[in-house]
């Protein structure tokens, strides 16, 4: 079974998480046969390792991690590859892959431009 993890930075303020919870809810509504978990780099739970473990325990054999970041800053260039490598080592039975940051996708950038245009 394939699954997806939406991976965010995390924050001290719990309200920061609300859009991520909404993303997961939208995912479940539009892709009910593909499990989704949230994971956070720091300050929030679950961690990437915990999310991979949850999906592995539910039968996932392949997981795509989608970094919900606008760009490839230091966290995605340095910290994220280490976390992903640790997960691959701990869960060798799971095929783990990752996409680029969502903000590097042209359709996401266009959606932001459209959002700004609607605000005018």
Describe this structure in words.
With about 120 residues, this protein is α/β, with parallel strands linked by helices. It is about 45% helix and about 20% strand. The protein is built from 4 helices and 4 strands, in the order E-H-E-H-E-H-E-H. It has a 4-stranded parallel sheet, with helices on both faces. Strand 3, helix 3 and strand 4 form a beta-alpha-beta unit. The chain is globular and about 50 Å long. The mean pLDDT is about 95.
Helix-strand layout with pairing:
Elements: E1 2-8, H1 18-30, E2 36-40, H2 48-57, E3 62-67, H3 74-90, E4 95-98, H4 106-119
Parallel strand pairs: 1-2, 1-3, 3-4
Principal-axes geometry comes out as: globular
- How many angstroms does the end-to-end distance come to? 44 Å
**What is the ordering of alpha helices and beta strands?**
EHEHEHEH
**Number of β-strand runs:** 4
| Widest sheet: strand ordering | 2-1-3-4
Radius of gyration: 15 Å
DSSP helical segment count: 4
Runs with pLDDT <50, length 5+? none
Strand content: 15-25%
- What's the helical proportion of residues? 40-55%
Largest sheet: 4 strands, parallel
Mean pLDDT over the full residue set = 97
User: Could you say which structural class the secondary elements and strand pairing correspond to?
Assistant: alpha/beta
């Amino acid at each position: 079974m394939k699954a997806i993890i939406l991976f965010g930075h995390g924050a001290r303020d719990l309200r920061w998480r609300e859009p991520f919870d909404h993303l997961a809810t939208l995912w479940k509504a539009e892709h009910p046969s593909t499990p989704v978990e949230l994971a956070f780099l720091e300050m929030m739970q679950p961690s990437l390792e915990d999310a991979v473990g949850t999906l592995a325990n539910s039968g996932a054999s392949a997981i795509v991690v989608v970094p919900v970041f606008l760009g490839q800053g230091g966290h995605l260039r340095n910290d994220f590859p280490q976390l992903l490598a640790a997960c691959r080592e701990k869960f060798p039975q799971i095929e783990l892959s990752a996409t680029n940051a969502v903000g590097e996708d042209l359709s996401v950038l266009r959606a932001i431009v459209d959002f700004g245009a609607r605000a005018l």
